[in-house]
Amino acid sequence: MSTNEIQLDATTIETLDLSPAREAIAQQLKGAMADAEQSLRFQIDIPRDPSDPRELSEIPEIRLWFIRLDAAYPWLPLLLDWSSGELARYVAMLVPHEFHRTEGIQFNPEALEIFLMSKIFVLASWLEEQGCPSRSRLKAMSQLLGYELDDGLFDLLLGPG
To answer: CA-to-CA distance for 120 and 135, rounded, in angstroms?
Structure first.
C-alpha cells in the first residue's frame, strides 16, 4: 500500500480549493478498494506566527476547508492513513475538542458520538455500494475513536454477519 499526501497551502485553504484532495482521492481510487484504504495523509504548510499557540485544528480557516472536504467526500475517513494518526487529526478538524498537555486531545463526547454514528451510516452504505465487506472496517474505526459498537447495530445496517 502506498501513501499519497494531499498538500495544502495557505491559498488552497483560503480559497476552499479541494482540487489537491480531488486529485489524490481519484488517484487512490483507480485501483482496488483494498489498495486505496488507509493510504492518504495531509501535509498542511501555512505561514504561522511562531507565538500562535493554536493547533492546526483550532484554526477556523483550516477547519472550514476540512468541513467542505467532508461534505464532498463523507466516506474519506476510510482512505486516511489511520496508523499515522490521520483519522484522529481529521476528526479533530470536524469535532469540537480541547487539548490537554498530559491527556492529549479530548473530544466533546456527544459531538464525537454524533460524528461517529453519522460516519458509520454513511460508510456502511458507501462500502455496500463498492461491494466491500464493511463490518470489520467500521468496528475498527469506531474502536480507534474509543467506541465499542454493538453487533446489533451492524446487524441492522448490514444484515447478520
So the answer is: 10
